[in-house]
Amino acid sequence: MNQFKGSIAILGSGNIGVSLAKGLIKADYALPSQITLTRRNISNLSVLAEQGFVISADNSAVVGNADIVVLAVLPQQLNQLLEQIRPSVDAKKQVFISVASGVSCADIRSKLGEDVQVIRAMPNTAIAIGQSMTCVATDHATKDNVEEVIRMFETVGSVVKINEDLMTSATALCACGIAFFLRAIRAASQGGVEIGFHADEALKMAVQTAKGAADLLLQMQSHPEQEIDKVTSPKGCTIAGLNEMEHNGFSSSLIKGIKLSAVKAGALYTKE
């Protein structure tokens, strides 16, 4: 990978911001000295300072020196942050990446200036281990800038470019989705305890089985039903269990949950 030549500011360095920073270093995309991390309480970033990252509590000053600015705060904190950094924005040289749910590129441009390049990215918490599913969208940023942002997020997992009107849907399916699959694994492990395994054994078995199922689809590039057909024999135990789950609304409850999360994701940010 060709190293990025400029400087990157990550404003609001919580789990996602810090994971991205570490991923960029691990993939040799940038050096720690090229990345500045900010948050209100910078004592929480002291370990990262020891690793060579630049640490600051002054968002405005940091943006003034940056080529790429990652807005990694909660939607509820975004307006205040945009207010702080507006005087330091240079639309000609900077790209802004927003990971705030439910905030459109147009929302951010209305606060920073209409000619600002804004790209939205929605990673999930598996970014911490380089296994994120990140969706990227923009309404007007240049092709080169979009490709640069995709390259950044490919250091921490898989990336799909989508239309911006699908970003709240992507939040529900990929970001909230982590919790849905975790809950399914937890339920499977509880079932394991009920049929005779110790809790730690049951969890290990459920986790590895879930990982195997996901890897089967990724590596064989097959469809879930194709793989299910291989496990379900006539009058067998697998189909009996599957049908019992379906009678109790397994698939429909997951679908309804994803739909509700998408509605909620779109309502996290207020423009005022």
TrEMBL record:
Coiled-coil residue windows: none
Gene3D superfamilies assigned to the protein according to its UniProt record, in alphabetical order: NAD(P)-binding Rossmann-like Domain, ProC C-terminal domain-like
Record-annotated Pyrroline-5-carboxylate reductase dimerisation domain positions: 164-265
Record domain Pyrroline-5-carboxylate reductase catalytic N-terminal: where: 8-102
Pathway membership, UniProt: Amino-acid biosynthesis; L-proline biosynthesis; L-proline from L-glutamate 5-semialdehyde: step 1/1
Listed GO CC annotations: cytoplasm
Reaction(s) catalysed by this chain's protein: L-proline + NAD(+) = (S)-1-pyrroline-5-carboxylate + NADH + 2 H(+); L-proline + NADP(+) = (S)-1-pyrroline-5-carboxylate + NADPH + 2 H(+)
Binding site for NADPH: 59
Residues holding NADP(+): 72-75
Predominant location category: cytoplasm
Compartment(s): Cytoplasm
HAMAP family: P5C_reductase (MF_01925)
Family of the protein in this entry: Belongs to the pyrroline-5-carboxylate reductase family.
Function field: Catalyzes the reduction of 1-pyrroline-5-carboxylate (PCA) to L-proline.
Protein name stated in the entry: Pyrroline-5-carboxylate reductase
